[in-house]
């Protein structure tokens, strides 16, 4: 049994959700303070990967990072290739999972009671203290829920991943590309096996999301 | 100790124009909701930026549009008690108060100050509670404690009693007055309640749709509000268009009567106001023939509505408020008004 797809999927999902966690929070925090018109435009751009078919996202990624494209060629000089590599999978998963983190975090930030930040400021607390010790804890549940959703989406990514990094056993294979590949080659048993693994992971993730939502509800009641 | 404010700010169709000075004691900002009271406080605290003007506190310039000075809220040393108290929900009472003491580096001193304020504001035993476990009055005291240990040079209270039920409100006003008398800095109190303003403030600034139009001693403002909007804000119920006849006599046009005034009349008189409490059947001056139309029973008072004999048909009924034990039976045919209680209004 080759466990590589599981390891590769987890690695891609973990790294991309860490990336998405910070960039999502960053954009959510700044977007929440932008004027309405700018926010609307930025919102469209940042949410687009969520509504586009993942293959279309993969197409755009190839347009930018393809080895014959300017940026792709430039990066290739330094040995960085996003096409047909496992870390290309990180890029694909991050792009597709980003809107989930961004949207949930923004929702949490927007429901934050701004007077808490104001009162911190009038007390003389620094803006970074207010952000990390008051705003983030108050929005904790929403941000965590966003992170879990982003991780789940990154783990299940298929479309953009298969466009950008394809399927090479032991190199770029992930759970979802493996399921497709095994089915295509009439290995029904192998496909079923990986499907069960995927189901198990998804169940754990969903239970985690539900528990977070429960705690959020309790926190609101209090 | 003084605060000088002279600011202007435009927000869409709303224009804020506020100019006043404090000189010790409690200054009230009285106005209807949405008139710009809270916006004024936010400008002083540095949360909102005025378009023009300046704010000077104890000789320190906090904001000056001409000199391009705009201190961040952190540097202004202004204590701001928010309407909802703004306690940090993820921290305990103790941690909340310590946020106001962040500047004290000496551990022992910090603990000492914490103990003192907990004792002073009767918060002992609540140190480990989270804000959601506190009653309205306790939450207010924690918020005050957090501000007081921060040693502000000015204290601003934004509708401090509006989040409390009426019983608690009355008791807390006594406590707050006592506490503020020990705080030897200037205090700004925002309220829409004339009672609160009257109880708490030595001077009152009246605001209406973004404009701060008058600052006066409390008693003087209630005795002679001068403008119709100030009369309205201080609770005057009866208004009529008016015309000056002589230095101490005016004609209340809507009511079809003449009234003698104690205050000498100026030219430009436009209206006259009479407070509902100041009508009295035993007062010999300014007698008006009246007939009663409606009545409303309150716990300790009667509100009686009446019309004057020669009153214009389109003008509103007048109000008379009287405590229950003083209500005459049967109701009188005539009411009088002491000349000192006839409020001449200009604007």
Descriptive account of the structure:
The complex is a heterodimer of chains A (222) and B (347). In chain A, 81% of the residues lie in helices and 0% in strands. Chain A is mainly α. Chain A has one domain: MetI-like fold. In chain A, helix 8 (140-155) packs antiparallel against helix 11. The longest helix of chain A has 34 residues, at 188-221. With 347 residues, chain B is α+β, with helices and mostly antiparallel strands. Chain B folds into two domains: 3-223, Rossmann fold; 236-346, no CATH class. Chain B has eight helices and 21 strands. In chain B, the strands form four sheets. A six-stranded mixed sheet of chain B has the order 7-8-9-3-10-11, with helices on both faces. In chain B, helix 2 (93-99) runs parallel beside helix 4 (136-148). The longest helix of chain B has 17 residues, at 166-182. The radius of gyration of chain B is 24 Å and the shape is globular. The mean pLDDT of chain B is 92. Chain A binds chain B through residues 113, 115-116, 118-126, 134, 137-138, 140, 222, and chain B through 42, 45-47, 72-80, 82-84, 86, 88-90, 99-100, 102-103, 130, 132, 143, 146-147, 150.
Sequence-ordered SSE layout with sheet pairings:
The complex is a heterodimer of chains A (222) and B (347).
Chain A: H1 4-33, H2 36-51, H3 54-65, H4 70-77, H5 86-110, H6 114-123, H7 127-138, H8 140-155, H9 159-165, H10 175-184, H11 188-221
Helix pairs in contact in A: 1-5, 1-8, 2-5, 3-9, 5-8, 5-9, 6-7, 8-11, 10-11
Chain B: E1 3-11, E2 14-21, E3 26-30, H1 37-45, E4 52-57, E5 60-64, E6 69-70, E7 78-81, H2 93-99, H3 107-120, H4 136-148, E8 154-158, H5 166-182, E9 186-191, H6 194-200, E10 203-208, E11 211-217, H7 218-223, H8 228-233, E12 238-246, E13 249-252, E14 257-260, E15 269-274, E16 279-280, E17 288-297, E18 301-308, E19 318-323, E20 334-337, E21 343-346
Parallel strand pairs in B: 3-9, 3-10, 7-8, 8-9
Antiparallel strand pairs in B: 1-2, 1-4, 4-5, 5-6, 10-11, 12-13, 12-15, 13-14, 15-21, 16-20, 17-18, 17-20, 18-19
Helix pairs in contact in B: 2-4
